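Assemble and predict.
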Amino acid sequence: MKILVFIQVDDNKINKMSLEALKCAQGLTSNVTAITFHEGAANELSNYNLNEIILAKNENLNSYSPLHYAKALETLIDDSCNAILFAHTYETRDWVPRLSVRTNYPFISDCIDLKNENDSLIITRQTYQGKLNNDFQLNSNVFCSIQSGCFKADDLESGTTQVNTVEVELSDVANTIRAEEKFKEQKGGVDLTAADLIVSVGRGIAKEENIPLAEELTTLLNGELGSSRPIVDYGWLPHDRQIGSSGQVVSPKLYFSLGVSGAIQHQVGMKGSDKIMAINKDGNAPIFEIADYSVVGDLLEIVPKLIDKIKES
Amino acid sequence: MKICVLVKQVPDKNDEIKLNSENLSVDRSNFNFVTNESDNYAVEEALLIKEKLQGEVVVCSFGNESAIQVIKDALSKGADKGIFIENDTNDEYDILNTSKIFNNVLKDENFDLILSGLQSDDIGNGQLGVLLAEHLNMSHGSLVMETDISDSTKIKVKRELENGWFQWSDLDLPSSLTIQSGINKPRYASLRGIMMMKKKPINTIKLSEIDTGANKIDNLKSMYIPQKTKETVKIEGSADEVAEKLHNILKNELGLI
């Protein structure tokens, strides 16, 4: 089995999830090739036990550009690779589907596990907000993106691998997508990553008027207030409170979630917490899969009583 | 400006998932179906662009019989017409093959813009908009948080990147955008809108009657409810009892009070 891994580089650093994908590949086969568009990354990768490192060079690959990236990788892959792995990042989601159409290989995204069973790949991905696992058996070429945290980059096998540099020809790529410099909003926003205790609110809080209830509990517990995506979308809390793949990734001592269902995108941002306490009306909510303490019930009844008890004590 | 919005009918997020006996499909009989959340934002964004630049909003969905409802809901909000690709087969399609089906139906429509929600809440591939951009030779922008359009040649989009970063991109039209939820405030259908919807055309195309070159899924090995890996302490009782127990854990077990 031959596996290719595309290594994403952000701000001149290898994306950690790309190394997790590389670890996934090392578990499948000894024939692993890493591909990167960044010279520094290629040199760093040469310290791992891989079959080959391909450094593709072209001035249009110096910063992310979906059409140039797609064309470059298209020229570097062929049917001999059983699978081409990526980190499941927003960037991957932005350009890899184009390759799927061009090559007619399926792109199975957000995978949580890959296994090599007698030279066929068994790929697991979740659906229905993490409530269901699907195993696919692939005997033909496939693109896969790997969910954050499913493999441990620390366990990568070290070694010495040679870097092969390839100049790629991209002059015929259309310039129909022109990105400007990236930027951050809300300078001086809240840094939730440093908090020891986070109280997090989700849809179950039901109304904007109920947010102060969560704020009061947060203050009493000396923590920070976080939220799931919908609460920010509704405009009930600012974006810098959001936890998950599009917000902050936190690992407090206690993550106390109130009415958060715990979709995959949210779990990615908080599953590293030491302890998770969850209140939710829906006993089947995915948050309970990873909770240390679970309460199936109405937070609007329970939280006021909890606040009273904390005040009494 | 000719705008297409792709909408999908999905089960409500709180619906319980049950498998059929062969463990290869989901029992859909007790689902409460709704329009996929981010698709509602895509519909709204299309309507806002149409209000600014004039033109037509065509709403398109692929699904089994019941899915026509999501088209009707978008028409009630102000979309002009619908294209319903009815899956009248018993087969399911992966996202690449689904994109071939859409491509087959949409390729001669010459849309300036295709808008879709960034990801479906059921299968969650999050690929269709970009797949279609490639099929139809369009530019694309994914995870769009804001749009700025003043003519029919270009659109500027603010995209959400990871870790709090954003980026503006300038896209040539035609373009396919995947819309992040929260980009706008989706409107509700008015009573008048619902009345007008009944007169709007929906072109229903049966999948079995067109040749799309799409293949059904044949690599699904099994489906199963994930095994819990963590031991969970279940806290039960009346609200008062639960509050007492939580207080106890926070104070004595975790030392946080």
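The mean pLDDT of chain A is 94.
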